[in-house]
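[step 3/7] fold_predict: job queued, chain A
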Amino acid sequence: MPSLFKIPVTNLKGVGPAKAGSFRKLGVNTVGELLRFYPRNYEDWSTPMMIADALSHKNCCVKAKFSRAFQPSVIRSNLVIYKIEVTDGENELVVTFFNQSFMYEKLRRGGEFLFYGTVRDNGYTLEMTSPSVLETSDMYIHPIYPQTANLNTKQIEKAALQAVSMMPETTNDPVPEPIREKYGLCGLGYAIKNIHFPENFQALAKAKQRLVFDELLVLQLGMERLKSDRQEVTSHKIKKDFTKEFLELLPFKLTKAQKNAIKDCIGDMKNNSYPMNRLVQGDVGSGKTAVAAAVCYTAVKNGSQCAFMAPTEILAEQHYRNLSALFKDTDIRVGLLTGSMKAAPKRAIHEAIRNGTVDIVIGTHALISDDVEFSSLGLAVTDEQHRFGVEQRSKLIAKGENPHILVMSATPIPRTLALMIFGDLDLSVLNEMPPGRQKIDTFMIDSSKRNRAYNFLKKQIDNGQQCYIVCPLVEQNEETDLISAEEYDKALDKTVLKGYRKAILHGKMKGSEKERIMREFSDGNIDIIIATTVIEVGVDVPNSTVMMIENAERFGLSQLHQLRGRVGRGKHKSYCILISDNQKPNTIERLKVMCDTNDGFKIADEDLKLRGPGDFFGSRQHGLPELKVANLSDVETVENARLAAQEIIQTDPLLSLKEHRGLNFEIQCLFASVGSTERLQ
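[step 4/7] structure written:
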């Protein structure tokens, strides 16, 4: 089948240069790519209904013969209505077309046709408006493809029909037969044919099962390959573990999960000849920074420099203050590098990094500037990793010679999904909270109780605390009644919150302006921040006690949980108020989850069930290829594909055996979309 990937689509009848250009916009250049361009939906023309039965179905197919034609009605110069009556032998149906004289003339000639659409009872007759019409020879399940300008689904279907006919009788199946048998998978040729033109819906289900498994298997193998690419010899292998010495510096005790994560990291750096490449994943407040500090301490004590990259200046400054205080009585020197620093101190820190007089440098994207040179970078840490793309992390890593890598994420992800999404990283999970971390009381209300909520916020502010109010939009949009941050700010002046110190924070602001506002809020000079989700991940403000979220139904559970995590970070009792007028049962069910638990991993599991994996997948940014058919909420298939990948890697790590060459090709195809193919050669 790979040979079909060398045949251009212009070899297909009816596909000239112009249409090939439209196919190109869909990512289809060859016959092979067209075979892997799967339908997004299907129309069932295979089992036509009787007209009387069609009333109870929204979209269905009816087989009927011409009965009579009505006189066309000219409504205005550019609108003519054509009506034809057809019959299935028992009932009549009027089909209506607008400005389609060719269809009117075609049906008037008589014969039997298939009509696909919605049948309605208009009181005196049954009617189907603007149906699709096909010959009875087209009585099969029709694929519906993603479309683009000048290329509709019918044209793609015709091309796909030719492509399928070009497939060899015996297809070289990339998945070895033992694995197909073990997991009950059909052959690839059968799957490709039936994903485009299914014999029936059972065959379609079998085809999808196979192709979903393939995609997840290939993704997992590709991620394993990326992981093996990092397994080059490192000169930063540590000789001694200084964790016990580090623990004596802490004014608190670590949780068992934190100790295990530190042990994982130190084990990677001490026992392997290749660099650590580990993700520490934990809920908001689970203590990821303490883990990173412990790992940095041991790395420095073994002669390495550490880089600690944070997504914002204010977060970098917070880490700098905390680590400087922690290491003040040691010989470890901590430095700070941000983009807004003035020229003289920036030159000084650049020089300190270059000559090794600073051990741990904490900074923003400024760390990956071309003029930053490390003396001996042995450990690169990225905080809130979902805020950094793969390219940015790669630039930081390139500042050293195969340094160890520690990435941290505050987005709880179900373990099975995390193993798939972060398959190129080893995983440590912080699944318990430090002692004293308080529960945030969460309430769900509708807009009729908003003024009571304002009174609650007023009471909190009068007691010296601060509050967040989150809105989904920045500017008023006439097409929606969602409250924008700017309109909301004005509306608050007509409530009990008039006169309090307020500020707006949103994604359209310049970075420096966002930093200024968050710094003012952190310093206690702002009472209420009215914000979009830019505060989802940010600085700790221990004095903030209320997170109020408007139109809460617009957010995913994991996103709501991240927003809630901005409060409850100090000694004061904290609260989250979810406002929504949406009464749909699934919406109420989702928001009730937030009220029932503060456990980010439970919330992530519910989010996966209710919304699918889109939010989690997006969090990986540019590191993953786009999947065409796989749904990661199918946990069983995800797990089976992972086990199959491990089985293959154990026997043939480089996929060099003849039976695995097809899988190698599939990896190249899947990862081409994110430019990772060079790393996978």
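[step 5/7] annotate
The two ends are 20 Å apart (CA to CA).
The first helix runs from residue 17 to 25.
exit 0
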